Amino acid sequence: MSKKIPLLILTLLITMSGLLLKTDSFGATATKAGFSPDAITVQTGQTFYLTVVVNDISDLYACQSDINYSTTYLELINVMEGPFLDSDGAQTYFVAPTIEPGKARHGALTRMGCDEGVDGSGTIVYIVFRALKKTTGTTVSLGNILLVDRNAQDINKGLLNSGRCRITISDEAPALTQPTVEP
């Protein structure tokens, strides 16, 4: 009897630690989606991209989201697939968002012809903008973010950087240098 209690306690502690690894200190999921970085400065007139990432995800098979931005300061040029969903060589299908003034709705990306999703962290899309007008800060935000697994079940997630990226546009700023990304 005395050996069973420590064994029971040990089993309980191992189970609880496994659950804690899946959550942060507030009990929310460790999986996050959002912009990285959460703030940039660009030169007026410059074309640049924002990177939408997922962190610490398991079995991601498809994703969808909306993008909100100010047409006073930003012109949306393109939304392009990132390398994460096809990082293992799987084929993917990208649905370009429907563009409305200040909004890009229902952009989506899914894996095709495979039985499992991808695990880890990576870039799911690039959003290309042109900086139109000087401002000390405008925000691009993600909305209606949907991440699903291979069984089309919603993956519990939180927002990285509140799902927002703050953009400062300045005539005096040096041009932002970014690696080239191709559609």
Helix content: under 10%
Strand content: over 45%
**H and E string:** HEEEEEEEEEEEE
What is the overall silhouette? elongated
Computed over alpha carbons, the radius of gyration is 20 Å
Number of helices: 1
The span between the termini is 65 Å
- Low-pLDDT segments: 5-28
Q: Main β-sheet: number of strands, strand sense, barrel status?
A: 7 strands, mixed
Rounded mean pLDDT is 87
| Tally of DSSP β-strands | 12
Structural class designation: mainly beta
Description:
This protein has one helix spanning 4-21, and strands at residues 32-35, 39-43, 47-60, 62-68, 74-81, 91-95, 98-100, 103-112, 118-131, 135-148, 158-160, 164-170. By secondary structure, the chain is mainly β. 10% of the residues lie in helices and 51% in strands. The N and C termini lie far apart (65 Å). The protein has one helix and twelve strands.
